[in-house]
Amino acid sequence: MSRRFGALTALAVVCAVVELVAGRGMSPGTVWEVLGGGGDATERHILFNLRVPRLLVALGAGACLAVAGLVLQSALRNPLAGPEVTGVTPGAVLGAVTATALGLAGWDSPLAVVLAACAGGCAGAALLWLLAGRGRGDPAQTAVQGVLVSAVLGGLTAMVLLVEPGELGSVVQWLVGTTEGRVWEHWHLLWPWALVWGAAAWLLAGPLTLLRCGDDIALTAGLAARRARTLALLCAVALTAGAVAAVGALGFVGLLVPHLAVALFGADLRKSLPGAALVGAVVVCGADAAAQLSSRLLAAGLDSGRLTLPVGALTAGLGAALLLVVVRRTPSRSF
After folding, report:
1. What is the chain's alpha carbon radius of gyration, rounded to the nearest angstrom?
2. 284 vs 55: CA distance, rounded Å
3. Which of 15, 208, 229, 250 has its CB 3.0 to 4.6 Å from that of 74, i.e. a possible disulfide?
C-alpha cells in the first residue's frame, strides 16, 4: 500500500513538472532557467503568477472531485453516482453564469465568481434535499431526483444564455471546465475549503463503509443510516461546489476516479479516500498538462496562436470511453 502511495506521489510530481513546462509563452528551457533564479520579470510573472497557481488549482480541484465521487458512491451504494447526481455541479455553473450576466461577478474577480458558484451549488443541493426528504433518504430515489434537478438547472443555464447571449464564452468555460487563467486568489480560496471538507469526509470513513454494506447492516451495527448519509452528502456537496467554483464542471472525474482508487487501495475508505484524492489530483493535473501540450501542438500546426484546448474536453472524452468499459464489465454491480 505504501508503495502505491509512493508511486502515485512520484507520478503527481512528474505531471506537475510537465504542466509547468507545457504551456505556451515560454520554452521548457526558459522555465528551467527561471526555476534556477534567472529570467526576466515577465518570465518570472508567467511562471510564478500564472503557471504555478494553475497547477495547484488543478491538483486541488481533482482531489475534491475524486473524494466527492467516492463519498457519493459509498453513501448511495451506486457505482455510477457522481457529483452531478447531487445537482451541485449544474447549480454552481448556473450561479456563476447568472452572476456574470448580471454584472455581479466576472473572470477578473475570482472571489465573486467563487461565491456565486458556491451559492448556486448549495441551492442545487437544497433543492435535491427538499425532494429527497420525502423518499426518506432512499439511495435510488435520491439518484433519480438528482438527475432531474440537474436537468432543470441546466435548462435554467440555457435560459440565461438566451437572455444574455454575450455570456456564451462564460457558459462554455463553466460547462466544459478549464484551468485557464487561474491565479493565486483561486488557490487561496480553494485549499482551505478542500482541507476542511476533505478531513470531514475522512472522519466519515467508518460510517461510509457501513453504508456501502447496506442500511440493514448499518442499523444492526448501531449506525443512524439516514443521518450518516445526510452528513456524507453534505461533504460531497461542499467538495463539489468548491471544485466547480474553481475550475468549472470537469466531467467524469468524480465518477471514474473512485473506481481507480478502490481498485488500487481496496474497500477500506480510511485508505481509499486519501488514495482517491491523490489519484484525482494526478488525473486532472495530467489531463491539464496534456491539454496544454495539445494546444501548443495544434496552435503550431494550424498557425493559430489563440487555439486553446480546455482540460474539461479531455476528461469528458476519455471519461465517456472509460465509462462504457465500466458499464460493460459490471452491468449489475452495486455496493
Report:
1. 20
2. 10
3. 208
